[in-house]
Amino acid sequence: MFEGTARAVDDVSFFLDRGEVLGVVGESGCGKSVTAQSVMRLIPEPPGKIVGGRILFDEMDLAAVPLERMGSIRGNRIAMIFQEPMTSLNPVYTIGNQIAEMFQLHRKLSRKESWKRAVEMLAKVQIPAPERRVYAYPHQLSGGMRQRAMIAMALSCDPEILIADEPTTALDVTVQAQILDLMMQLQQDYETAILMITHDLGVIAEISQRVVVMYAGKVVEEASTGTVFADPKHPYTHGLLRSIPKLGDRSAGDRQRLAEIKGMVPGLLALPRGCRFHPRCPEAMEICRERLPDLFSVGPGHCVRCWLYGETSGETETG
Protein backbone atom coordinates (compact mmCIF):
# COMPACT_ATOMS: atom_id res chain seq x y z
CA MET A 1 0.00 0.00 0.00
CA PHE A 2 1.37 3.41 -1.02
CA GLU A 3 0.96 6.64 0.90
CA GLY A 4 1.95 10.14 -0.09
CA THR A 5 1.05 13.03 -2.36
CA ALA A 6 -0.11 12.11 -5.86
CA ARG A 7 0.31 14.64 -8.67
CA ALA A 8 -2.76 13.84 -10.75
CA VAL A 9 -1.83 16.69 -13.12
CA ASP A 10 1.83 17.65 -13.37
CA ASP A 11 3.03 20.71 -15.31
CA VAL A 12 0.20 20.53 -17.87
CA SER A 13 0.03 23.54 -20.17
CA PHE A 14 -2.15 24.24 -23.21
CA PHE A 15 -4.29 27.04 -24.66
CA LEU A 16 -7.83 27.30 -26.00
CA ASP A 17 -8.71 29.97 -28.55
CA ARG A 18 -12.07 31.66 -28.78
CA GLY A 19 -14.52 29.53 -30.77
CA GLU A 20 -12.06 26.62 -31.01
CA VAL A 21 -12.69 22.94 -30.26
CA LEU A 22 -9.72 21.39 -28.46
CA GLY A 23 -9.65 17.65 -27.79
CA VAL A 24 -7.92 16.16 -24.73
CA VAL A 25 -7.38 12.40 -25.06
CA GLY A 26 -5.79 9.56 -23.14
CA GLU A 27 -6.62 6.41 -21.21
CA SER A 28 -8.53 6.48 -17.93
CA GLY A 29 -6.27 7.72 -15.15
CA CYS A 30 -4.22 10.08 -17.35
CA GLY A 31 -5.48 13.25 -15.65
CA LYS A 32 -8.02 14.49 -18.19
CA SER A 33 -10.96 14.97 -15.82
CA VAL A 34 -8.78 16.41 -13.04
CA THR A 35 -7.54 18.99 -15.54
CA ALA A 36 -11.13 20.00 -16.31
CA GLN A 37 -12.13 20.09 -12.66
CA SER A 38 -9.09 22.23 -11.87
CA VAL A 39 -10.15 24.81 -14.45
CA MET A 40 -13.59 24.96 -12.84
CA ARG A 41 -12.09 24.86 -9.31
CA LEU A 42 -14.17 21.79 -8.53
CA ILE A 43 -11.34 19.82 -6.90
CA PRO A 44 -12.52 19.12 -3.33
CA GLU A 45 -10.05 20.61 -0.83
CA PRO A 46 -9.09 18.48 1.05
CA PRO A 47 -8.03 15.93 -0.17
CA GLY A 48 -7.18 17.70 -3.43
CA LYS A 49 -5.23 20.91 -3.81
CA ILE A 50 -3.93 23.16 -6.56
CA VAL A 51 -0.36 23.76 -5.41
CA GLY A 52 1.03 25.79 -8.30
CA GLY A 53 0.61 27.16 -11.77
CA ARG A 54 -1.91 29.54 -13.31
CA ILE A 55 -5.25 29.15 -15.10
CA LEU A 56 -5.57 32.30 -17.19
CA PHE A 57 -8.97 33.41 -18.42
CA ASP A 58 -9.79 36.95 -19.56
CA GLU A 59 -6.83 38.40 -17.63
CA MET A 60 -7.86 36.51 -14.48
CA ASP A 61 -5.93 33.73 -12.79
CA LEU A 62 -8.71 31.29 -11.89
CA ALA A 63 -6.34 29.39 -9.60
CA ALA A 64 -6.14 32.48 -7.38
CA VAL A 65 -9.71 33.77 -7.69
CA PRO A 66 -11.67 33.51 -4.40
CA LEU A 67 -14.21 30.68 -4.46
CA GLU A 68 -17.03 33.17 -3.88
CA ARG A 69 -16.15 34.88 -7.18
CA MET A 70 -15.84 31.54 -8.96
CA GLY A 71 -19.55 31.08 -8.30
CA SER A 72 -20.28 33.93 -10.72
CA ILE A 73 -18.01 32.38 -13.37
CA ARG A 74 -19.10 28.73 -13.20
CA GLY A 75 -22.16 28.08 -15.32
CA ASN A 76 -22.10 31.66 -16.53
CA ARG A 77 -18.85 32.27 -18.42
CA ILE A 78 -17.42 28.74 -18.18
CA ALA A 79 -19.81 25.79 -18.16
CA MET A 80 -19.30 22.05 -17.92
CA ILE A 81 -21.09 18.95 -19.20
CA PHE A 82 -20.39 15.89 -17.11
CA GLN A 83 -20.03 12.28 -18.19
CA GLU A 84 -23.06 10.94 -16.33
CA PRO A 85 -25.95 13.42 -15.97
CA MET A 86 -27.72 11.32 -13.34
CA THR A 87 -24.93 12.19 -10.89
CA SER A 88 -25.01 15.87 -11.88
CA LEU A 89 -28.73 16.61 -12.08
CA ASN A 90 -30.58 16.99 -8.80
CA PRO A 91 -33.08 14.11 -8.59
CA VAL A 92 -35.59 16.03 -6.43
CA TYR A 93 -35.99 19.02 -8.75
CA THR A 94 -37.59 19.11 -12.20
CA ILE A 95 -35.46 19.72 -15.27
CA GLY A 96 -37.22 23.05 -15.73
CA ASN A 97 -36.39 24.21 -12.21
CA GLN A 98 -32.72 23.37 -12.64
CA ILE A 99 -32.37 25.21 -15.94
CA ALA A 100 -34.48 28.18 -14.78
CA GLU A 101 -32.21 28.52 -11.74
CA MET A 102 -29.30 29.38 -14.07
CA PHE A 103 -31.21 32.38 -15.45
CA GLN A 104 -32.32 33.50 -12.00
CA LEU A 105 -28.82 33.20 -10.53
CA HIS A 106 -26.70 34.63 -13.34
CA ARG A 107 -29.14 36.79 -15.32
CA LYS A 108 -31.33 37.92 -12.42
CA LEU A 109 -34.50 37.15 -14.37
CA SER A 110 -37.90 36.67 -12.76
CA ARG A 111 -39.17 33.16 -12.11
CA LYS A 112 -41.72 33.49 -14.93
CA GLU A 113 -39.16 34.70 -17.46
CA SER A 114 -36.62 32.09 -16.32
CA TRP A 115 -39.16 29.32 -16.81
CA LYS A 116 -39.93 30.61 -20.31
CA ARG A 117 -36.20 30.59 -21.13
CA ALA A 118 -35.90 27.03 -19.79
CA VAL A 119 -38.57 25.87 -22.24
CA GLU A 120 -36.74 27.66 -25.06
CA MET A 121 -33.44 25.98 -24.15
CA LEU A 122 -35.04 22.52 -24.16
CA ALA A 123 -36.42 23.30 -27.60
CA LYS A 124 -32.97 24.36 -28.81
CA VAL A 125 -31.46 21.04 -27.76
CA GLN A 126 -34.22 19.27 -29.69
CA ILE A 127 -36.14 17.77 -26.77
CA PRO A 128 -39.69 17.08 -28.03
CA ALA A 129 -42.62 18.75 -26.29
CA PRO A 130 -40.35 21.01 -24.18
CA GLU A 131 -43.33 22.71 -22.52
CA ARG A 132 -44.12 19.34 -20.92
CA ARG A 133 -40.56 18.08 -20.38
CA VAL A 134 -39.73 21.03 -18.12
CA TYR A 135 -41.95 19.38 -15.50
CA ALA A 136 -40.11 16.03 -15.74
CA TYR A 137 -37.64 14.79 -13.13
CA PRO A 138 -34.26 13.39 -14.27
CA HIS A 139 -35.29 9.77 -13.69
CA GLN A 140 -38.23 10.24 -16.04
CA LEU A 141 -35.95 10.98 -19.01
CA SER A 142 -33.81 8.64 -21.11
CA GLY A 143 -30.02 8.88 -21.02
CA GLY A 144 -29.93 10.88 -24.24
CA MET A 145 -32.65 13.24 -23.00
CA ARG A 146 -30.80 13.80 -19.72
CA GLN A 147 -27.62 14.63 -21.59
CA ARG A 148 -29.53 17.09 -23.79
CA ALA A 149 -30.94 18.68 -20.63
CA MET A 150 -27.40 18.98 -19.27
CA ILE A 151 -26.31 20.68 -22.48
CA ALA A 152 -29.30 23.05 -22.27
CA MET A 153 -28.30 23.94 -18.72
CA ALA A 154 -24.64 24.41 -19.65
CA LEU A 155 -25.44 26.71 -22.60
CA SER A 156 -28.25 28.63 -20.93
CA CYS A 157 -26.06 31.67 -20.14
CA ASP A 158 -24.08 31.69 -23.41
CA PRO A 159 -20.74 30.65 -21.83
CA GLU A 160 -17.47 31.59 -23.50
CA ILE A 161 -16.01 28.15 -22.71
CA LEU A 162 -17.78 24.80 -22.55
CA ILE A 163 -15.90 21.91 -20.94
CA ALA A 164 -17.33 18.56 -22.02
CA ASP A 165 -16.00 15.71 -19.86
CA GLU A 166 -16.71 12.55 -21.87
CA PRO A 167 -20.31 13.66 -22.50
CA THR A 168 -21.21 10.74 -24.78
CA THR A 169 -19.51 7.78 -23.08
CA ALA A 170 -22.66 6.33 -21.52
CA LEU A 171 -24.76 6.68 -24.68
CA ASP A 172 -25.32 4.28 -27.56
CA VAL A 173 -23.72 5.18 -30.90
CA THR A 174 -26.86 6.60 -32.48
CA VAL A 175 -27.59 8.95 -29.58
CA GLN A 176 -23.88 9.75 -29.35
CA ALA A 177 -23.86 10.98 -32.94
CA GLN A 178 -26.96 13.08 -32.29
CA ILE A 179 -25.42 14.68 -29.20
CA LEU A 180 -22.18 15.49 -31.03
CA ASP A 181 -24.07 17.03 -33.96
CA LEU A 182 -26.12 19.05 -31.50
CA MET A 183 -23.04 20.30 -29.63
CA MET A 184 -21.35 21.39 -32.84
CA GLN A 185 -24.46 23.18 -34.09
CA LEU A 186 -24.85 25.02 -30.80
CA GLN A 187 -21.12 25.79 -30.75
CA GLN A 188 -21.47 27.48 -34.13
CA ASP A 189 -24.59 29.35 -33.02
CA TYR A 190 -23.05 30.61 -29.76
CA GLU A 191 -19.38 30.79 -30.90
CA THR A 192 -18.43 28.94 -27.74
CA ALA A 193 -14.96 27.44 -27.31
CA ILE A 194 -15.15 23.75 -26.38
CA LEU A 195 -12.69 21.67 -24.40
CA MET A 196 -13.67 18.11 -25.34
CA ILE A 197 -12.30 15.46 -22.98
CA THR A 198 -12.62 11.90 -24.22
CA HIS A 199 -10.86 8.59 -24.77
CA ASP A 200 -12.62 8.21 -28.13
CA LEU A 201 -10.34 9.30 -30.97
CA GLY A 202 -13.24 8.94 -33.40
CA VAL A 203 -15.03 11.77 -31.59
CA ILE A 204 -11.86 13.89 -31.68
CA ALA A 205 -11.41 13.32 -35.42
CA GLU A 206 -14.96 14.48 -36.05
CA ILE A 207 -15.16 17.70 -34.06
CA SER A 208 -11.81 19.09 -32.85
CA GLN A 209 -9.27 21.39 -34.51
CA ARG A 210 -6.36 20.55 -32.18
CA VAL A 211 -5.50 17.64 -29.89
CA VAL A 212 -3.67 17.34 -26.58
CA VAL A 213 -2.60 13.78 -25.68
CA MET A 214 -2.10 13.12 -21.96
CA TYR A 215 -0.40 10.26 -20.17
CA ALA A 216 0.12 9.78 -16.41
CA GLY A 217 -0.63 13.42 -15.61
CA LYS A 218 1.52 14.98 -18.34
CA VAL A 219 1.03 16.24 -21.89
CA VAL A 220 2.97 13.92 -24.23
CA GLU A 221 1.90 15.34 -27.58
CA GLU A 222 0.06 18.38 -28.93
CA ALA A 223 -0.75 19.20 -32.56
CA SER A 224 -3.55 19.93 -34.99
CA THR A 225 -6.03 17.08 -35.38
CA GLY A 226 -4.94 16.41 -38.94
CA THR A 227 -1.30 16.20 -37.90
CA VAL A 228 -1.97 13.83 -35.01
CA PHE A 229 -3.83 11.40 -37.27
CA ALA A 230 -1.51 11.73 -40.27
CA ASP A 231 1.87 12.08 -38.57
CA PRO A 232 1.78 11.09 -34.87
CA LYS A 233 5.18 11.20 -33.14
CA HIS A 234 4.87 9.87 -29.60
CA PRO A 235 4.80 6.05 -29.28
CA TYR A 236 1.78 6.40 -26.97
CA THR A 237 -0.15 8.34 -29.64
CA HIS A 238 0.83 5.66 -32.16
CA GLY A 239 -0.57 3.03 -29.79
CA LEU A 240 -3.86 4.87 -29.34
CA LEU A 241 -4.32 5.20 -33.08
CA ARG A 242 -3.48 1.54 -33.75
CA SER A 243 -6.16 0.49 -31.27
CA ILE A 244 -8.94 2.04 -33.38
CA PRO A 245 -10.98 -0.53 -35.36
CA LYS A 246 -10.67 -0.08 -39.13
CA LEU A 247 -13.13 -1.03 -41.82
CA GLY A 248 -11.82 -3.66 -44.20
CA ASP A 249 -12.85 -6.20 -46.79
CA ARG A 250 -13.53 -9.32 -44.76
CA SER A 251 -14.20 -11.34 -47.88
CA ALA A 252 -10.63 -10.64 -48.97
CA GLY A 253 -9.29 -11.86 -45.66
CA ASP A 254 -8.49 -8.35 -44.43
CA ARG A 255 -9.05 -9.17 -40.77
CA GLN A 256 -6.55 -7.98 -38.20
CA ARG A 257 -6.47 -8.09 -34.44
CA LEU A 258 -6.60 -4.71 -32.75
CA ALA A 259 -3.19 -3.62 -31.53
CA GLU A 260 -2.97 -3.08 -27.79
CA ILE A 261 -0.75 -0.95 -25.61
CA LYS A 262 0.67 -3.52 -23.24
CA GLY A 263 0.57 -2.85 -19.51
CA MET A 264 -1.40 -0.30 -17.52
CA VAL A 265 -1.22 3.40 -16.75
CA PRO A 266 1.06 3.61 -13.68
CA GLY A 267 -0.31 4.57 -10.30
CA LEU A 268 0.41 8.19 -9.40
CA LEU A 269 2.14 7.08 -6.19
CA ALA A 270 4.36 4.62 -8.04
CA LEU A 271 5.46 6.48 -11.16
CA PRO A 272 8.44 4.99 -13.03
CA ARG A 273 11.76 6.79 -13.13
CA GLY A 274 12.41 8.80 -16.30
CA CYS A 275 9.78 8.84 -19.04
CA ARG A 276 6.49 7.70 -17.55
CA PHE A 277 5.61 5.70 -20.65
CA HIS A 278 8.87 3.78 -21.01
CA PRO A 279 7.72 0.53 -19.25
CA ARG A 280 5.07 0.16 -21.98
CA CYS A 281 7.01 1.69 -24.88
CA PRO A 282 8.29 -0.56 -27.70
CA GLU A 283 10.94 2.04 -28.57
CA ALA A 284 12.28 2.74 -25.08
CA MET A 285 16.00 3.56 -24.82
CA GLU A 286 18.32 3.71 -21.83
CA ILE A 287 17.87 7.45 -21.45
CA CYS A 288 14.10 6.96 -21.28
CA ARG A 289 14.61 5.01 -18.05
CA GLU A 290 16.75 7.76 -16.53
CA ARG A 291 15.48 11.15 -17.61
CA LEU A 292 12.07 12.71 -18.12
CA PRO A 293 12.00 14.38 -21.57
CA ASP A 294 10.87 17.93 -22.13
CA LEU A 295 8.23 18.86 -24.71
CA PHE A 296 10.23 19.14 -27.93
CA SER A 297 9.00 21.09 -30.97
CA VAL A 298 8.89 18.90 -34.08
CA GLY A 299 6.98 21.24 -36.39
CA PRO A 300 4.67 24.26 -36.45
CA GLY A 301 2.28 23.87 -33.52
CA HIS A 302 3.46 20.28 -32.98
CA CYS A 303 5.34 19.25 -29.84
CA VAL A 304 6.11 15.86 -28.32
CA ARG A 305 7.55 14.65 -25.00
CA CYS A 306 9.86 11.91 -26.29
CA TRP A 307 13.63 11.34 -26.45
CA LEU A 308 13.29 10.17 -30.05
CA TYR A 309 12.92 13.85 -31.02
CA GLY A 310 15.04 15.82 -28.54
CA GLU A 311 18.43 16.43 -27.04
CA THR A 312 19.43 14.50 -23.93
CA SER A 313 19.02 17.34 -21.46
CA GLY A 314 15.72 16.59 -19.71
CA GLU A 315 15.18 16.51 -15.97
CA THR A 316 16.35 13.53 -13.95
CA GLU A 317 13.65 11.78 -11.96
CA THR A 318 14.22 9.78 -8.83
CA GLY A 319 10.72 8.29 -8.52
Description of the molecule:
The protein has 319 residues and is of the alpha/beta class. The chain has a domain of 144 residues: Rossmann fold, CATH 3.40.50.300. It is built from 10 helices and 12 strands. Strands 4-5-6-1-7-8-11-10 form an 8-stranded mixed β-sheet, with helices on both faces. A hairpin with a 2-residue loop joins strand 2 and strand 3. Helix 3 crosses helix 4. The radius of gyration is 21 Å and the shape is globular. The two termini are 16 Å apart. The C terminus is likely disordered.
Keywords:
12 strands, 319 residues, Rossmann fold, globular, alpha/beta
The helical percent reads 25-40%
Helix-strand category: alpha/beta
Radius of gyration, in Å, reads 21 Å
Order of helices and strands: EHEEHEHHHHEHEHEEHHEEEE
Q: Tally of extended strands? A: 12
CATH homologous superfamily classification of the domain at 50-193? P-loop containing nucleotide triphosphate hydrolases
Main β-sheet: number of strands, strand sense, barrel status?
8 strands, mixed
The overall pLDDT, averaged over residues, is: 87
- In CATH, the topology of the domain at 50-193 is named Rossmann fold
Q: Major sheet: order of its strands?
A: 4-5-6-1-7-8-11-10
> How large a portion of the residues is in β-strands, by DSSP E?
15-25%
User: Are there runs of 5+ residues with pLDDT below 50, and where?
Assistant: 313-319
CATH class of the domain at 50-193: Alpha Beta
The CATH architecture term of the domain at 50-193 is 3-Layer(aba) Sandwich
Report how far apart the termini are: 16 Å
Which word captures the global form? Answer: globular
